Amino acid sequence: MMRQDDEVVLSGTILLGEELEPFEGHLCLRGGVVAEIGPEEVESDLLGIIAPALVNGHVHLGDSFFKDPPYLPLRDLVGPGGLKHRALASAPRREVVEGMRRSLLYMARSGTAAFADFREGGSDGVEMLLEAMEGTGLAGRIFGRPDPGSVRIHEKCWGVGISSTKDHPRSWVEEVAEAARREGKKVALHAGEADRDDIEDALSLEPDLLVHLTRAEPRDLRMVAEAGVPVVVCPRSNLVTGVGLPDVARMLEMGITVGLGTDNVMLNSPNLFSEMELASKALLHNDRQVFMMCTLNGARILGADDEAGAIRVGKECRIMVIDRRSENMAGSRDPLASLVRRAEPSDVLAVI
C-alpha cells in the first residue's frame, strides 16, 4: 500500500459503524477522514483496539480547582449558595482557568474527543473556559448561563444550561429559554436529580436535553420518551451525592437516547472509562450499549457526529487506539467488553 504524507495507518480490532462490530484489519486515515478499511495485514503506525473516541455528555469543569470536598447533601454541595458556588466566588480567576485546563488535558489524553460543559459564571465563565480550551484539540459544547439580572447568552455558547427549575424564578427560566431559542441555541436542564418534582416543569420548556433523571419514575420516563428528549446520566456523581442511580435500562427500553457524563470534576475525575465500568457492571450488563452511550449517542446528542461518532469510510472521525497488549488488557477475549469494563486512561495509545 502506497503511503501519503498526511496518512495514518492503524491496524488491529476496529469497532466499526453504528453497531460497533469488531473487524480485524487495518484502517487508513487521510487528512482526518477514513479513506480505507480492509482485512489485509499492512505496515501500520499503531496496533491495538481502534474505536470511536469518547464523548463526555455532561461535565462541570469550573470546580476543577476544588477537588474532593466533604460528603454533603446535594443541595449543600452544588445548590444555590452551596459549597461549590462559595468556592467559585472566592477563587482567583487564574486558579479556575488552570484547573479547567488541567482537566481538559487529562480528558484529551484519556480518549475523550468532545464534551458538554454546564458553564457557571455568566459571560466571564465562558471566556475562562474558552481560554482553558486553547490548543487542547477538544470539541466543546458550552451550555452557558446568563449574567445575573440578564437573559443574554454568550455568543460562543452552543446552548443554555440551567440547574433545576426549582433553583430559579419560573419567569426568569422561561425568559432564558425563549432567548436561547431566538438565537438558535439549545436548552438543557438538570431534572429529577434529588427528587422528581421538577421533571414535568422541565419538560414544559421543551428542552433539547435533560441531565440526571435519577429519581424519575416510569411515568416520568414515558413523558420524556414521548417528547423525544435525550438524557445524559452521571452515575458516579449520583453515588457521591447520595441520590441513587438512574434507571438506564428502562430509559433504553422506552427508546430514549442516553448519553454518559462525569459531572462535577470536584466530585469525580472526568474519566469516562470509570463511568463505563460502573454503568456496565451496575446498571446494564450490556457492554455495546454502554459504549454507544459515551460515543455514538453522545455525539448525536451534542450534534458532534461530524467530529466524533461512528467509524466508517468517507467520514471524518476522532479515533482512540487502545493498547491491547498492556498489562491491564493482555488476555482479553472480547475487545469491546474489555474496553468498557477494564480499560484505563493509561491504556490509550493515541487519540487521532
TrEMBL record:
Name one molecular function that GO assigns to this entry.
hydrolase activity, acting on carbon-nitrogen (but not peptide) bonds
Protein name as it appears in the record: Amidohydrolase
Q: Which domain of life is it from?
A: Archaea
Q: Which UniProt keywords apply?
A: Hydrolase
Q: Where in this chain does the record put each Amidohydrolase-related domain?
A: 49-348
- Gene source species: Methanothrix harundinacea (strain 6Ac)
Iron-sulfur in keyword set: no
* UniProt keyword Hydrolase, yes or no: yes
